[in-house]
Amino acid sequence: EYAPDIVFMDIHLPGLSGLDAVEAIYAIDREAYIVMLSVDSERDSVVRASHNGARKFLKKPYARDRMLETIKSSPHVRALMRTTSVGHETMMS
User: Fold this and answer.
1) Which residues contact 43 (CB under 8 A, 6 or more apart)?
2) Cα–Cα distance measured from residue 23 to residue 50, given in angstroms and rounded to the nearest whole number
3) Nearest 5 degrees, angle CA 54-CA 12-CA 65?
């Protein structure tokens, strides 16, 4: 019912695997832009996250610039930024 521009998901959630949640979201919405955030950056976790539908992976702690770059890379956000008037400052400036 809701289609957020970006979903931020940790791998380890209480009572639920973020990797399983990503897989469920992606099964419902193939256009979902899912970003995994985690201290768990083992190769297997990153590969599984990508295979399950995650588009990006940010290792915690992450820099502000890296987060903004990731947000800007979302096709949904890029489309929104294109629709804003030229010359107007956006939240991503």
Assistant:
1) none
2) 10
3) 55
Query: For residues 60 and 37, is the Cβ–Cβ distance under 8 A?
Result: yes
In contact, 92 and 67? CB cutoff 8 Å:
no
| CA atoms within 13 A of residue 21's CA, in its CB half-sphere | 15
DSSP E strand boundaries for the chain: 7-10, 12-13, 16-17, 34-38, 54-59
Q: Does residue 41 contact residue 57 with C-beta atoms inside 8 Å? A: yes
In degrees, to the nearest 5, what angle opens at C-alpha 26 toward C-alphas 15 and 74?
110
56-83 tens-digit pLDDT: 999 999 899 999 999 999 988 888 888 8
Of the two residues 85 and 31, the one the predictor is more confident about is 31
pTM of this prediction? 0.78
Q: Report the C-alpha gap between 49 and 68 in whole angstroms.
A: 20
